[in-house]
Amino acid sequence: MNDAKLEIIIQNFITIMPLFQKKLMKPKCHVNPDNLNHSHMQILVVLKDYGKSSISDVAKKLFISTPNMTKLLNKLIDDGYVERLPDQKDRRIINIDLTTKGKEHLDNAFEDLVRTFKERLSSIPDNQLDKLNNSLENLKEVLTEISSED
What we know:
The protein is mainly alpha-helical. It has a domain at 35-116: Orthogonal Bundle (Arc Repressor Mutant, subunit A). The chain has six helices and three strands; from the N terminus they run ααβααββαα. A three-stranded antiparallel beta sheet has the order 1-3-2. The chain is globular and about 55 Å long.
């Protein structure tokens, strides 16, 4: 593929990301009483997807430094969303996992997100929704083909 085509694709990505946030997510974003930020939510999602994990594994998946991870985790632990668990095989390793409160918070956030998406997308004509769905399916297919470390 030539550089000009790649630059157009890159520009489209750069344009779409903020539009996606602005048009679909930001204004009606999930209200959380404990003021969890995006990084906190990412940690919760990783724990939901992968289950009990070491702190360093979660940090690597999210590209978060260990000191920052510790600060983020302390809030999640203090607020009751995550718990520390000693590793059964190696006492030097501390694992973390979602608590019931953390799982419920993610479920509520997901429900709010679905509701917000439905509200935002309901005004779009069916033919446009079909185009959007096809585009998203294509994007998903292409992105899954890109090699990654995960």
